[in-house]
């Protein structure tokens, strides 16, 4: 009899994977969002009006004013996408958040992140010197050496060919860890430089089974196009995300960006990501976006962001995360996605509460 895997086990495996991915990215994004000054007046809607546009009910808006964290399910752009939306009130003044903002601009307090590095504008191999095959380096190295199209590693045809060529030179089954790390660094640098110069159009696809490809740039473009309220109220932010590296802003609008490589431990494996973090200040609005245009396995790409608007009681924060992963499509039905979301929410709730408490102490 052929072995079978129960639906509940598959669901649990998928949720653990997605939770590990989100744990490795959500803290820094929400932390930055809660720790940011707000500029002077603009023509943006009041926070309560914006929540109405998210179709958050009168009763849920009242719950937010009373200190609760309210969630909703944004429209998902594909069967691979897992979207989460949350809103909360932070009772603090912007001028009290400067030091916390600086403290949040580091990855050091996020348990799953084992290493990270900032990438310079042009990008050089020296920027990736800290990229290593940890944890479980030899086991992961063998995955790269024996790579083939599929979901186990997210690589394009050129990257796969380089690892297979290295595999053909091995003697006595030895695993050339240092040479492997060098190839991984070269691949990350090439992906960064392509995105930096061409934006989403330059993001290399992933080779999948039966000669198919996953087009990461198109997936992120579709995720951005789901943000209709961003296009309506903050068109400059929307245009930058769609048209990057074009970054045309109107007078009085500001943009700051940073690029990082990140190694996170997900499912006991090193997971390499490339992150583009963009900080916008437009009138009263503050918007932070973290776009992960590369993930080496477990997820395809990720785009999350948060926006803050002042209200009479403090600052209303709206957070939205979109993760694209092949494991999500395995869930199949909307009922299974609801079950997965229900398992995810307690962790996100606890994280948001802790970050809000920290923000309100300053």
Give short descriptive properties of this protein.
alpha+beta, disordered N terminus, Alpha-D-Glucose-1,6-Bisphosphate, Chain A, domain 4, two-stranded antiparallel sheet, 42% helix, eight-stranded antiparallel β-sheet, 12 helices, 362 residues
What does this structure look like?
With 362 residues, the protein is of the alpha+beta class. It has one domain: Alpha-D-Glucose-1,6-Bisphosphate, Chain A, domain 4 (2-Layer Sandwich), CATH 3.30.530. The chain has twelve helices and ten strands. The protein has helices at residues 7-34, 47-53, 58-65, 98-104, 137-145, 157-168, 177-198, 216-225, 228-233, 235-243, 326-331, 334-360; strands at residues 70-72, 81-90, 113-118, 206-207, 213-214, 254-266, 269-282, 285-295, 301-311, 314-324. The strands form two sheets. It has an eight-stranded antiparallel β-sheet with strand order 1-2-10-9-8-7-6-3, with helices on both faces. A hairpin with a 2-residue loop joins strand 7 (269-282) and strand 8 (285-295). Helix 1 (7-34) crosses helix 4 (98-104), helix 1 packs parallel to helix 12 (334-360) and helix 6 packs antiparallel against helix 7. The radius of gyration is 21 Å and the shape is elongated. It starts with 6 loop residues before the first helix and ends with a helix. The model is unreliable at 1-11, 30-42 and 94-105 (pLDDT under 50).
């Amino acid at each position: 009899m052929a072995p079978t895997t129960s639906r509940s086990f598959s669901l649990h495996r998928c949720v653990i994977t997605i939770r590990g991915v989100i744990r490795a990215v959500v803290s820094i994004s929400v932390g930055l969002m809660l720790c940011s000054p707000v500029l002077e007046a603009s023509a943006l809607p009041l926070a309560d009006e914006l929540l109405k546009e998210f179709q958050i009910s009168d009763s849920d808006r009242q719950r937010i004013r009373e200190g609760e964290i309210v969630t909703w399910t944004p429209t998902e752009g594909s069967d691979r996408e897992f979207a989460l939306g949350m809103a909360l009130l932070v009772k603090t003044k912007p001028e009290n958040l400067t030091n916390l903002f600086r403290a949040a601009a580091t990855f050091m307090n996020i348990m799953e992140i084992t290493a990270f590095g900032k990438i310079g504008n042009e990008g050089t191999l020296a920027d990736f010197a800290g990229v290593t095959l940890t944890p479980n380096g030899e086991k992961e190295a063998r995955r790269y050496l024996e790579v083939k199209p599929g979901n186990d590693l997210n690589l394009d045809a050129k990257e796969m060919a380089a690892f297979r060529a290295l595999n053909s030179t091995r003697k006595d089954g030895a695993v050339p860890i240092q040479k492997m790390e060098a190839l991984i660094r070269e691949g990350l640098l090439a992906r960064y430089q392509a995105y930096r110069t061409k934006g989403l159009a330059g993001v290399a696809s992933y080779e999948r089974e039966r000669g198919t490809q996953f087009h990461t740039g198109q997936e992120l473009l579709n995720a951005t196009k789901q943000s209709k309220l961003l296009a309506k109220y903050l068109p400059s932010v929307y245009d930058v995300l769609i048209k990057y590296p074009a970054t045309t802003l109107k007078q009085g609008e500001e943009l700051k960006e940073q690029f990082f490589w990140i190694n996170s431990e997900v499912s006991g494996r090193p997971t390499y990501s490339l992150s583009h973090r963009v900080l916008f200040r437009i009138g009263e609005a503050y918007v932070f976006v973290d776009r992960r245009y590369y993930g080496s396995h477990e997820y395809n790409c990720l785009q999350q962001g948060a926006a803050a608007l002042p209200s009479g009681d403090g600052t209303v924060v709206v957070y939205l995360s979109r993760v694209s992963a092949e494991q999500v499509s395995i869930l199949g039905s909307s009922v299974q996605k609801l079950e997965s979301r229900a398992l995810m929410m307690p962790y996100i709730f606890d994280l948001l509460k802790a970050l809000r408490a920290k923000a309100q102490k300053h």
